[in-house]
Every structure is written in C-alpha cells, then in structure tokens.
Write a structure and sequence with these properties.
heterotetramer, A mainly alpha (about 475), B alpha/beta (about 325), C mainly alpha (about 300), D alpha/beta (about 375), B: alpha/beta, Rossmann fold, 2 domains, D: Rossmann fold, five-stranded parallel β-sheet, about 45% helix
Chain lengths: ~475, ~325, ~300, ~375
C-alpha cells in the first residue's frame, strides 16, 4: 500500500460530513512535526513493537511484580521488535511504490480466474449442488480421519457452539435483537435434560429418554424465551442487552445457588443418549463420532428450517424490524410478536443444544454456563457475519477451533489474548464479518455512506409520550 | 371549532360509495411533550372517499397529528375514531401502530423510511403479507398454506408495484432508488396493506417537477380508482390545490381554518400564519415560502434519533451546546 | 435484619456504590459521545489497580507510613492508578475504536471490538503481572475513624467515599462548566452539528475516553486498596457498573452516579438479607424492574441534559 | 486511516510473534522416553491453581531427569481442561491420543475428573489426581482413577472434630466459596458439626466477590464462636482482612486451599491466629520440603502454591513406578495402573497408598496455625482434639 493510495482512501472513505469541517479546522491549527502522518505512523509502529514485545515476552509473577516489565524492556527482544517496526515503516514510507505495484500485480493476476469461478458458480446450479454435496460429505465423514482428540473437540465444543450460534443468529442476525444472555437458554436446555431424565434431586413425574426430552426442552426454552421477551422487548439496543445479561446472571446464579433443585455447584450427572425400540437399540457411549453425526443432523435440520424462515415473510419482517422498527409497525408488522418469535426460536435452538450437550458430556455444572460464554457466542456470530448461515457456521467453528489450535503454539494461558487481538483486527478490517449476508453487507455499505444505522441496536427509542 | 365550519362548505367528495360518511373523526385531541403542546384540541372530520389536505408552517403539528392517528404517539386527551367500511368503529387513541395499519390506515413518512437493504419487491411484500395467515411453523415445514400465502403476497406485490409504475425496478434495492421512486415505493408499500385511508406525509418533498406531476396523478388515481380516502400533508400548494377536496390548516398545534382550497387560500388567518404580518394574497408567494420550508426535512440527517415532532427538543439542545462552545472559545 | 445491622449494611453499600458510581461514569461518558458500550472499560479499571500497585510497590518503605507520609502515598497510588487507567483508555480509543468510527461501523461491531480488546487487555495483564491476586501495600494503619449511626467506618472506607465524592463533583464541574465539558456535551447531543461548530470530534472523543479512564483508574486503585488487585478484577465490577450506568440512564452522568449508589446499596442489602450468593440476583432484579417502569433508566439518557 | 494501516502492518509482526514463541517445542530425546501428562486448568479462571501444580510436576520431572540414574527420559505433556467438566473429555483424549503418555496426573478438579475418569478408564491410562477431593469420585467404579489426597470427608470431619472437641464451639458459621472444592468441604464440616451438637450457620460467598465487608458482617452478626472458611487463599485473604475489621474475634479455620504462605501475604496481620487444616505433614520442618520450596522458587520465580508439593509428590511417585517397570522390561499403561495401585511412596507431604477403589488410604488430617509471618505445625487433629 502506498502513501498516495492511503491518503486518497482517507479522503474518500471518511464521510464528507465529518471530514470537511474537520480538515478546515485542522488547517487553522499549527501542525507540529510529530503530528505529521509519517512520524505519527512511526510512533504508532514503535508502540506496536513494544506491545508485541510485552505480548511475547517474559511471563510475570506476583512474587516480583516488575519481573516481566524489567525483562521485557531490557532484553534483546525489544530491540528485535523495534528494528522490525522501523524496517516495516521504512519499507512502507520509502519503497511504497514498488511494493504497491507488486500487490496490484498479484491482484490483477488473481482477479481473472476468480471472476471466472464466480461466474460458473452463479450460473450453473449443478455446480452449486455438487459442491454443496461434496462439502456435506466432507463434514460428515472428514472427521473420521482426524485424531480422536480433535473429534472430541469437534463434538463437545465446535458442534455445540455452531448450533448455539445458529440459534443466536436468528435473534441478532435476523431480528437485530442484542441478546447478551443467550447461554441462559442453553443452561435451561441442559437442566431440562437433567430433570426429565431424573438426574436432579427433584424428580420428574416420569423419567424420559434423552431424545424425548428434546421436544420438551424446546418447549421449555420457547416458554422461557417468551417469558423473558414479553416484558423486555420494548426495550431497545443496550437496554435489552443489559436486561438479557441480567437474565443470564439470574439463571446462572439460580443454577448455582438452588442446591436442592439443581445440585448447585456440585454439578449434575446425566445419562447419555440411547435408543431402544425393541427391535433396534443403540447406546451412545464414549466414542465421540456418533454424537457428532447426531449433532450434524440437528445442525442441518436447523439450517434447513431457518433458511426457509429467512426467505419467507417472517425473515422479511425481521429485516424490516431490524432496519426501521417504526416503519415496520406502520406497515402493519406486529413487531413485538415477531421479536418474541425470534427470541423463542433462538431460545429453542439453544435448548436442543443444551440437551445434546448434557447428554454428551454426561456431567456438567453451572460454570459451563458462565456469562463469558454468552459474550463469546455473540462474538462468533458477528465474526462470521451475522445474518448469514455460512458465516455463522464458519465464525463459530473457526473461533472455537482457534484457541484449541493455538495451544500448540502459544502458552495456553495467553490464547485468549491472541483471540482478543484477532477480534479487534477483524472488526477493523471486516466489520461485516468473514462471510456476511447480502442484506447485511448492503446495510453496512449504506451506513458507511451515512444512510441508516445498520442495526436495530440503536439507542432506546421509547414510545412517545 | 364548531360543527358549523364543517357544514359550511360542500367540497366535491370522491365518487365512491358511502361518500359523505365520516371515515375518520377526531375531537379534542391534545398532545403534549413536556411543557410543549404539539396538538391543541384538534378536531378533524374526514369523509369517506375524499382527499383532505393538512397544511401549516413547519412545527405546526401536522406530523404529530399523523403520528397520533397511527398510534405512534398517544395524545393525552381526545378521541380518535376510525369507521371501516364493513361497519363498526375503532378507537385509534393509543392503538398499536401495526393494529392501526391492519384496520386500514396506512401511512408514508416525511423522511422516507423504506427498508433500504431490501429490494423494492420485498418492501412491498412485507406490507402485503401482514394480513396473510401463515405461522413460522408452517413456513419452516413448507406446508401448502405457507406456499399459498407466499404466492399470494408475490402476486399482490407485483400488482401494487405495477400500479405505481415501479414494476421494472422491483429487484433494485430500495435504498438505491431515486428520490421520486422512493416516494412512490413508500406509497406502494402503504397501498399493499389494502388501506381505506392513506396518510401521505409530504409525498412531494424533494421531488422534481416531473415527478410531482406523476405523483399528483397517482394520488388522484388512488383516490378515484381504488376508492381510498387520502389524508395529505403537503407544503407544495400547487399540488394541494390540484388534488385536495378540502384543506385543513394547523398552526401551533391548533386548527385555524378548514374549507375548500380556494377558501382556505383567502383566509386571512392562514396568510397571517404563513407570512406573519405581511398580508400578501399571492398564492405563488405562499407556495414559494412553503417550498423553502420544505427543504428542511430533505437534508435532515437520515436515521435521526428523533422523529419529526420531537425535533424541537434536539434543536434547543444543540443550540445550547453551540452557545456554550461559543462562550468558551 | 436489625436496625443497627441495617445501618451497617447501608453504609457498606454506599461505599461500594460510590465505587460503582465512579466506574459507571466511565461507561456513561463514552456512551454519551459515541453511543458505544465500552465493554473494555472494566480493563481500564483493572489497569488502574495495577497502576497504583506498581507505583506503591516501587516506592513504599518497609514499615507502614503514617501522618503526611500516608497521605502522600495514597495520592501517589491514586494518581498512578488514574494515569495508567487514562493511558489505557486513550490507547483503546486510538487503536480499537477510532478506525471503526471513521467507517461509521455499526454499534455491534464496536461491541465486539470492545470485547476483543477486553480479552486482550486482561490476559496481557495476567501475563505481565502474574495471575495471583496481590494486596495493595499498606499505606496507613486501617483504623476505624468514623461512626455513622453506629456503623463504624475504616480509613479505607472513608477514603473511598471522600475520593469518590470529590471525583464526581469534579467531573460534574468539568462536564457542565468547562470548555472541554461543553465540547463533550455538544458531541453528545449532535456530533454533526458540533463538528460544524468547529468542535474537533476526534479530540473530544479522545478526551472523553481519557476522562473516563482517569476516573476508572482511580476507582481501580481504591478498589484494590479495599480488596486486592488481580487480572480479572475488572469483570464483575465492570458489569455491575455498566448495569448502574444503564439503571441511571445511560449517557447521563448524574444518572450513572445515582445508579452506582443504588446498585451498591441494593447488592449489599441483598447480601445482608439473603447472603452473598444472591448478591447479583438482587442487583439485576432491581435493574430489570426499574427498566420495566422506566425504559430509559431513572434519569433518562444524554450527557448534556443534567437531570 | 492511520490506525488502519498500522494494524495492517501489525499482522506480519504478529505472525512473527507466533513464530518466535512457537519455536522451541517438538524436539524429543533419542533414548527411551515416557511421558507424564498433567490435566488441569492451564487457562481460564483457575489458571493459577493449574500453574501451581504444573510447576510442581515440571520440577519433579526435571529433577528426575537431572538425576541421571533413570535410564530413560521423562517428558511432560500439559493438557488443559480449564477446570470445566465439558472440556475435560477432549483434554483427556489428548493425553490418550499420545501413545507415549503412560500416566496422567489429574484431573485437578472434581468436576472434570468426573467426566474424564471414564475416558481414562476406557483407555486404561492411570489418572492420579492430587487435588480432586469430592468423595464420590472413587465410588463410581472408574477403573484407573486414583486419588492421591484425602477426600473432603476426612478434612471436613477433622475440622468438625477439632472445633467441637477442642475449641468447644457452640455456634459455628461455615462459609463456602461456591466452588466444587469449597462446597464439598463445607458440606462435610457442616454435617459433622451438627452431629456433634454444634449450632451451624451455613453461608456462601462466591469466589472473587468484589467486596468482602458485607460477607464479614454477615458472619459477625451471627456472633459465632468459630468460623470455617472452605475456599482458597485468594479469597480467604481479603475475607480475613474484612473479618478483622468487622470485629470478628472467634476461632477462624480453613482448609488446605488456604494453607499457603500467600494467605499471609494477602491478609497481612489479619491472618494471625487462623487455624488451617491440611492432609499434608509438616511442610516447613523437613529439609526435603525446604529444599523443594527453594528449588521451586529458583525455577519459577515464585513460591510454591496450593497443591504444588502434592503434585510434585505425585509426579515423583509415578516416576519411581515407571523406573521399576522399566527395569523389569517395559512400561505399559495398564501395568502402570496396577503398579501404582499397589505402590507405597513417602513423599514430601505424606505417605501415599491406595485402597482397592483407588481411594487414598491415609486419611490423617493435620492442623496448622498462622503465627506472625509463618504457618506453624500443631499436630494431627485426632491427637489434638483427643
């Protein structure tokens, strides 16, 4: 990237309404040497080098608080990083033209074939079906070839979180409701499974098979979603966020404190999946793969059903509400009903995940439903591209996989530091997510141009007066 | 305001059946925001099949009146009654907006509020679907009634789009249409709900002369061909004069006049309201002043936090801040 | 709960609440100018604790200081906490939020960035300073000095109350009476008008972050003095303070103060009545109930509008 | 714009960072090598405990390798379950997948132990936990699960015995920290105290509570003769401080989670007089223990924490058994399970041996007291309470 293009971009991308007066005002101020872009860039790069040194440097201890700082700032590492920073800066500032032309060149070369692939993709339905079948086959049978450890991760974490993310996508991606308490429904699902299989201190009227618990859990979560949603859905944006967060905290603390009902922090032991039809019986045991296939069935089913919703009147109504609730209501869309519907559908997906999870791990405690997970699932959805099923699938799968993979490369304690940095960087470069939905992409483009707010999570707008 | 005023003029009511019967009636509607009275004891009587225009300077309470009629605002006092064709009556005071829409009142917005990231067709379908019965379960399972509903809404949306002349642009994004097309799409969206009364909030604002003419014709067609009663807020006097059967004038939240377009135009109170002390009878001048006023909403920041009507609060706030800044600079 | 217990818990609640109030101001200020939930503010708070801890660990002598020495060390600790808090807040705005602002990114994106930044910051702190908690070095002998309705207050508690009140009064002055404050209010009300009026939005936003960071950092130091300092210490107080800001009416500085105090008292009373395990249940139930009645918080939104 | 470009430039640098930190793994010894895995919270909320144990194990392995008389290399494999039951099966699988892993120390927490023990059992890999103390773990028939620590029943009973027998307390407040460990311990203490006719008030103060003053007030308002805190030193520290401020003057007692020098550091003089139980024998008197503490501090630049020494012992015991098997021909997973089951080993903290269910046989609880800057050994609870 060259200086010229970057400054041109700067002028082009900044919205005229803020830059024009700003630059006018800026001209009036005296620009000191260190405020010049070039030197500011150097300063920022040096700061970055120091940060990277801290990130990769010595492990601190509480015994000697200054140990890490001392080591980091006196060791060789700092100088290496600073040298890299200066080198990068120099290349960027003084060899900009060469590098940018090289980049342009490769872009041109790759643009041709990519365009052709895209054309074939959109033109031929058979190609699309073929590729989809291949992907599905890979998803179903591929994991047979990986280590059992990864199979476990795939089931316990990736598949479960993918299912959760698909559910949350309905709530936030389609209906635009900022839900920071989604894992509460997951917990309700898991505890339903525990209750109906007779694993809690309080006994159910009849102990059921795990599969039979599924519809009950869906129903329970549906009701819970409506109970939470009905009074809160007139709240908007951040208010809804904090209320859902509060709801999560309340559910979590209930699970933790109501020892007599939920076993509290001791946790619950749940039976695994099993089928007994007389002529055919099967038990899910320790091998992760049967659970995986079961979860794949759930996921595919959820995707299939939800895609129909997205392209129906319900999906359109959600989009309308997300974009402009007032206009949607004026057009006759019962906004509260549709929001409740989104909440309930999301919640019931979460319920399925809860039952599947409880029946897979066999033992869980309230810490499995900590508040951080609600926040993480949200991050998965938005990282992948909210509103887009492929995006959400990718986001959840990738971000769950990444920390596990990072284990091999960095100190496991630091994994979430890198994940956090990745989230920040991603959001700066691809705010729409990795694989955004078409609608969402348009909304963002319009928002950047200064039209509309791009999501319904804006400041509260109460009904007047 | 007395009943005499209403009886006084006999505007040419639209040709549909039941003409003269009141379709929309308000009395004593008063709406306050904090200390600010936005609507003050407003009486409105709208006959079935007529085109009634509401005019008045900016901030006169026209949009507040619309918002009160459609359930977006709940006035503190008064009575708002809507009488649908099939008989009976609904109180609109405090009714939920979507219910008002389903009863048969549809509206457009002063600062166009389309669903910009959806196509024109989808925009209209959303409106067309609100009366169709198909639940999420039947949709997910792909049951026949869901498919039928989908086809019905598709057909209806195509119909409406072709009626307003946007069929050729149905797959374009609403946000990328031209200003005039957006205005028409908004009308189409309102029409798709099958309304008995259509509330148009400054449909001509920001459109060019050709578009204005087309719009004029469209409103007339909607009124006569579809038998929809039209309540119109408009600043463009030429448009008002040509389509309205009757005109009602608001100033500072109060009704100051009502009558046929020509009557109203000559009303001294109206001229006073528009021009202050200068008594000027030239309609053109009135039109011009009003046209200047109109440019306000068009440049207003899109997606503003406040809708029209609460704008007063923001204005003073921003002004206060501006004063502060100046003081300290 | 007897009357004397009631006073005991009330006083404890007010002390805790005043800390929440100071943190909540950080959320509310940023929300006011950017309509952004700065989730990472809890890490600013945490770094404030470490700022004080680092400065005091480096400077404080073996034996507990007394008299003016104590006052000096308290000031040093608080300033160091505020400084590090302010610096982190400044960096956060520069690195994480400014590029998004340039793109007018939707608010959800800001939220995820904030979450990412929060992950990054607390894990970095854990890496740099170890993951065990540490006590603040003793700056004075923590005697009981004051009795309110029979509830006895220690020096630490008095210190928290006095500094929190001082910070809140100071902030209220800054927001309502100074040039910088009028800039903040102008941007809060309408950024575009403000920028047309010649207000440098970037600068105002940056200063708002620093202002919130200074308060959050100082609160972190006070919190550390009252309890201890560790790398995830920001999480729970952060969420509570965020709830407090919403409760008072997010964007409204006085609302944040009120909300903070209220939540502090509600939490402590809940603890007194039903035990510590129900602490947050009490707080969140009150939050939800209040929002049911007043959907935009007790005092309503906006920085500019001063209740 | 500026920031955007900078972040863009940051990516190659970050990649470099990954590469730098990633180097240094992956080389393996040439001769015979056996791996010992540790399963515990190596990231997440309870990482400090995991680190205490990991360091203890690492130290043991390093010392064993440095000894030079093994005839084989011992390698260390960390598997991280974050202290969560749902992450435990995958973590366990990771240890199982690595065929040269012959023994696992852990799972550290009872919850993860409950999910992982079954997987270990199916793989025939020994899981020797030096910290999962929930009593029912050894009653579920997990085939390869051995517990190298007395369970909560023993310690809770010891506490109750001492408070009722020696202190003659009439009213005791029992506070747990809402963790698996704390609740287990508090439950037993509560039950046994009640059985001894003592009035018990049970309270819970979740870990990492932002303000312990209300919790302290809740204790003092009951005017108890004694307090039992079932939790870790991180929370006992500030709690002790606030208890002192609130004017608590009864007997304060806590378990092995608090029996740590850092408790004194965190609580300051408020920790003075606290009674601490521990299934471990005197940790300060013996030369071996002193040497361990010194070595540990030298290696990891911090003092050994809760369970460091226990994990060290566990690792040493396993290495000793491996050595015996190695000399006899070879080390198989199942053989090692059997060997450990029958093993008797005297470590720094206690003597190790297991019954047929894998439960620790030596259930003696010892009492310590904080006095000034140190934790002083008092003797076994049974003897003291008489």
């Amino acid at each position: 990237m060259s200086i010229k293009t970057s400054s041109a971009e700067g002028a082009g991308q900044d919205s005229p309404s803020t830059t024009a007066p700003l630059s006018a005002a800026a001209r009036l101020r005296r620009v000191r040497w260190y405020q010049e872009p070039r030197w500011r860039r150097l300063g920022a790069l040096l700061a970055l080098a120091v940060t990277l040194r801290l990130m990769t440097g010595e492990e601190g201890t509480t015994q000697d608080l200054f140990l890490a700082l001392r080591e980091d700032f006196t060791g060789v590492g700092l100088w290496v990083w600073l040298a890299i920073a200066v080198a990068v800066w120099a290349v960027r500032e003084f060899l900009a033209d060469q590098t940018s032309s090289a980049v342009e060149g490769t872009k041109k070369v790759s643009a041709g074939p990519l365009e052709r692939v895209r054309q074939v993709w959109s033109a031929d339905k058979r190609v699309r079906m073929g590729v989809l079948t291949a992907v599905l086959a890979l998803v179903v049978f591929g994991p047979l070839g990986v280590e059992r450890y990864w199979q476990q991760v795939l089931v316990d974490q990736i598949a479960i979180f993918v299912l959760l993310a698909i559910g949350l996508n309905v709530v936030i991606g389609w209906a635009g409701l900022l839900d920071l308490g989604f894992i509460a429904f997951f917990a309700i699902g898991a505890y339903s499974a525990a209750y109906w299989t007779g694993s809690l201190p309080v006994q159910p009227p009849v102990a059921l098979n795990n599969f039979l618990v599924l519809p009950i859990a869906v129903l329970t979560c549906l009701v819970a979603g409506v109970i939470l949603g009905a009074p809160t859905l007139r709240l908007r944006g951040d208010y809804l966020a904090i209320v859902t967060l509060g709801f999560h905290e309340i559910v979590y603390l209930m699970a933790k404190n109501a020892d007599g009902v939920t076993e509290g922090a001791r946790g619950v032991k749940v039976d695994r999946f099993s089928i007994d039809l007389g002529f055919f019986s099967y038990e899910w045991k320790l091998d992760p793969m049967p659970y995986y296939w079961l979860l794949v069935v759930f996921i595919v089913l959820a995707i299939f059903l939800f895609l129909r919703l997205e392209h129906s009147k319900v999906g359109r109504a959600w989009t309308a509400i997300r974009e402009d609730e007032v206009a949607a209501a004026a057009t006759g869309v019962p906004t509260v009903r549709y929001k409740l519907m989104a909440f309930a559908i999301g919640a019931s997906t979460s319920g399925v995940a809860g039952v599947a999870y409880a029946s897979k791990v066999g033992y869980f405690n309230p810490e499995n439903f900590a508040i951080l997970l609600s926040i993480l699932v949200l991050a998965y959805v938005i990282f992948g591209g909210m509103g887009s099923i492929p995006g959400v699938l990718f986001g959840a799968a990738f971000l769950v996989w990444l920390p596990e993979y990072l284990r091999e490369w960095v100190d496991p304690k630091d994994r979430y530091m890198y994940l956090g940095a990745l989230l920040v960087i991603m959001m700066i470069y691809r705010p729409q997510g990795v694989l955004p939905s078409r609608r969402r992409k348009r909304e963002l483009r319009m928002a950047e141009a200064g039209v509309g707010g791009a999501d319904a999570t804006g400041p509260a707008e109460g009904r007047q007066p | 305001m007395t009943t005499e005023t209403v009886k006084k003029e006999q505007g040419p009511a639209g040709g549909s059946a039941g003409a003269g019967e009141l379709v929309l009636e308000t009395s004593g509607v008063t709406l306050r925001f904090g200390g600010l009275t936005s609507l003050d004891n407003v009486e409105l009587r709208m006959r079935r099949g007529e085109v009634l225009a509401v005019i008045g300077p900016n901030g006169a309470g026209k949009t507040s009146l619309f918002n009160s009629l459609t359930g977006a605002y709940v006035p503190q006092e008064g009575r708002i009654v809507f009488r649908p064709r099939e008989g009976g009556e609904h109180s609109l005071l405090g009714a939920k907006p979507h219910v008002v829409s389903q009863w048969g009142l549809a509206r457009t917005f002063q600062n166009i509020r389309l669903f910009g990231a959806l196509t024109a067709l989808e925009n209209v379908k959303i409106a067309a679907e609100t009366r169709l019965k198909s639940g999420p379960v039947s949709i997910m399972l792909g049951l026949p009634n869901a498919r039928k509903a989908e086809r019905a809404s598709d057909r209806r949306a195509h119909e409406v789009l072709s009626y307003v002349g946007l069929l050729g642009k149905m797959n374009e994004l609403a946000g990328s249409l031209s200003y005039g097309d957006q205005r028409r799409l908004e009308i189409a969206r309102a029409l798709a709900t099958d309304p008995e009364v259509l509330l148009l909030d400054e449909p001509a604002a920001g459109t060019n002369p050709t578009e204005k003419l087309e719009l004029e014709e469209l409103i007339r067609r909607i009124n006569t061909e579809l038998g929809v009663s039209v309540l119109l807020i408009e600043h463009d006097m030429r448009l008002v004069m040509s389509v309205a059967d009757r005109v009602m004038v608001l100033n500072f939240g109060k009704k100051i006049a009502e009558g046929s377009p020509s009557q109203v135009q000559r009303d001294p109170a109206v001229i006073e309201a528009y021009l202050g002390a200068v008594a000027e009878e030239d309609e053109a001048a009135v039109g011009q002043v009003v046209a200047e006023d109109v440019s306000g909403p068009a440049v207003r920041k899109a997606g503003t936090r406040e809708d029209a009507g609460t704008g007063a609060g923001t204005g003073t706030g921003a002004e206060a801040a501006r004063r502060d800044t100046e003081e300290h600079e | 709960m007897s009357l004397s217990e009631f006073w005991d818990f009330l006083v404890l609640g007010v002390v805790l609440g005043s800390l929440y109030a100071v943190i909540a101001i950080g959320y509310t200020l940023v929300y006011g100018v950017l309509q952004l939930l700065n989730f990472a503010h809890s890490e600013v708070f945490m770094f404030g604790g470490y700022g004080g801890l680092l400065a005091l660990t480096a400077l404080i002598p073996e034996s507990t200081p007394s008299g003016m020495g104590s006052v000096a060390y308290v000031l040093i600790g608080m300033l160091a906490g505020a400084a590090l808090g302010g610096a982190v807040a400044f960096g956060l705005e520069r690195v994480a939020y400014r590029p998004l602002r340039r793109h007018r990114a939707p608010r959800l994106v800001f939220l995820i960035t904030a979450i990412g930044a929060s992950f990054f910051l607390y894990n970095l702190a854990g890496k740099l300073f170890g993951r065990n908690p540490l006590p603040m070095p003793s700056m004075y002998e923590n005697k009981k000095v004051l009795s309110v309705f029979g509830a006895e207050l220690t020096i630490t508690q008095v210190l928290i109350l006095v500094s929190a009140v001082a910070m809140m009064v100071g902030l209220d002055y800054v927001v309502n009476r100074t040039k910088m404050g009028s800039g903040i209010r102008a941007v809060a009300q309408d950024p575009e008008v403000a920028s047309l009026m010649g207000v440098d939005i970037d600068k105002v936003v940056s200063r708002t972050f620093v202002l919130g960071g200074l308060l959050g950092g100082a609160a972190g130091f006070l919190f550390g003095t009252n309890s201890q300092v560790w790398y995830t210490m920001g999480f729970l107080p952060g969420i509570t303070a965020f709830a407090a800001a919403v409760l008072g009416g997010i964007g409204n500085v006085r609302g944040a103060m009120l909300g903070g105090l209220m939540l502090g008292v509600v939490e402590t009373m809940t603890v007194g009545l039903w035990g510590d395990d129900w602490r947050y249940v009490g707080a969140f139930v009150v939050l939800v109930l209040v929002l049911m009645v007043r959907p935009t918080g007790i005092l309503g939104e906006r920085v500019g509008r001063t209740a | 714009m500026l920031n955007k470009t900078i972040v863009k430039l940051a990516i190659p640098m970050a990649v470099g960072a990954l590469a730098l930190t990633g180097c240094g793994g992956g080389d393996s010894g040439s001769g015979d090598a056996y791996k010992i895995a540790f399963q515990g919270p190596l990231s997440g909320d309870n990482v400090q405990l995991g680190q205490n144990m990991e360091n203890g194990i690492k130290l043991a392995i390093d010392q064993a390798n440095a000894g030079g008389d093994l005839g084989f290399e011992v390698e260390y494999v960390p598997v991280d379950d974050q202290g969560l039951p749902d992450k435990a099966t995958a973590a366990a699988q990771k240890a199982i997948d690595d065929e040269s892993v012959v023994a696992v120390i852990g799972p550290a927490f009872s919850g993860p132990a409950d999910t992982a023990a079954e997987v270990y059992g199916a793989a025939g890999l020994v899981a020797l936990s030096s910290s999962a103390t929930r009593p029912d773990l050894t009653t579920k028939g997990y085939e390869t699960f051995l517990r190298a620590v007395p369970n909560d029943s023993a310690q809770g009973a010891g506490m109750a015995k001492y408070l009722s027998g020696k202190v003659k307390a009439e009213k005791v407040v029992v506070v747990d920290d809402k963790t698996d460990y704390g609740i287990g311990l508090a439950d037993v203490a509560e039950k046994d105290l009640k059985a001894a006719g003592v009035e018990v008030v049970r309270q819970s103060v979740p870990q990492k509570t932002p303000d312990y003053s209300a919790a302290a007030k809740n204790v003092t308002k009951n005017k108890p003769d004694a307090l039992v805190y079932a939790g870790y030193y991180q929370d006992a520290g500030p709690f002790a401080k606030k208890l002192k401020e609130a004017g608590f003057d009864g007997v304060a007692m806590s378990g092995d989670g608090t029996n740590d020098a850092q408790f004194i550091q965190l609580a300051g003089d408020a920790s003075d007089g606290w009674l601490l139980t521990c299934p471990c024998t005197d940790a300060t008197k013996e030369d071996a223990t002193k040497k361990f503490a010194a070595d540990y501090e030298k290696e990891f630049k911090q003092a050994p924490g809760t369970y460091s020494a226990e994990s060290y012992d566990a690792a040493m015991m396993i290495i000793e058994e491996i050595k015996k098997l190695h000399e006899d021909g070879g080390v198989e997973r199942q053989a090692l399970v059997d060997a450990l089951r029958a093993a008797k080993y005297k470590g720094l903290t206690k003597e190790f041996s297991f019954d047929d269910k894998g439960e620790f046989t030596n259930q003696t609880i010892y009492l310590y007291q904080v006095k000034g800057e140190g934790i002083e050994y008092q003797g076994s609870v049974d003897e003291l309470a008489g």
